User: What shape does this take?
Amino acid sequence: MNEPLRLSKRMAELGLCSRREADEYIARGWVKVDGVVVNVLGTKVLPSQSITLEHQANTAQAQRVTLVLHKPVGYVSGQAEDGYTPAAALVQDKTRWRDDRERTRFTPQWLRGLAPAGRLDIDSTGLLVLTQDGRVARQLIGEDSRVDKEYLVRVEGHLSAADLSRLNHGLSLDGKALRPAKVVWQNQDQLRFVLHEGRKRQIRRMCELVGLRVTGLKRIRIGRVMLGNLPEGQWRLLGANERFV
Assistant: This one.
């Protein structure tokens, strides 16, 4: 298939940036196609054409931050709703983990455009990624994302061997089959889930389908990034050499 695509869409497909960032870079004249600056929004390109970013775009990307937050129960991962506080409100100088290995001084500029890369339910706790970088967001929540996420899930109820097998592969939500998961017993009342997708309230709904009630849910890993010893309600910068994949 060699049909032309919008330049911004192609840039996002290549992982250069998000589509919103692509439009900004194009408008600023920071994008070259086959060595020629393109600054007209809506320009279309062929998949075979070479797309590069000017150094100004690379500099802008390098200044965007990604944070790792240990979200407590009672905070919503996205925008404020029904009187509940968004998790991003916890990103303050005083809530920064004292053991953060990145020593860059906190600045309110980090809060501009900071958005969650994925959801974590209000009644769940654990690892939440907040980022200004569209490349990170696409890597974690893009349609073609394959970054796995790991959870510890406390449950009540009886789980047969057959239903444990169904949790691993064989369930559907909203009429659509779920991708294969990895679900094993962590201890007598806690399961360990590893998922490759993030449907709304997916784990709780999966457990309901096999007769279990979730009493606690904590995300402990996204890709290669672990929650580790990060205290609840605190955050740290993603390390310069830390990668999700």
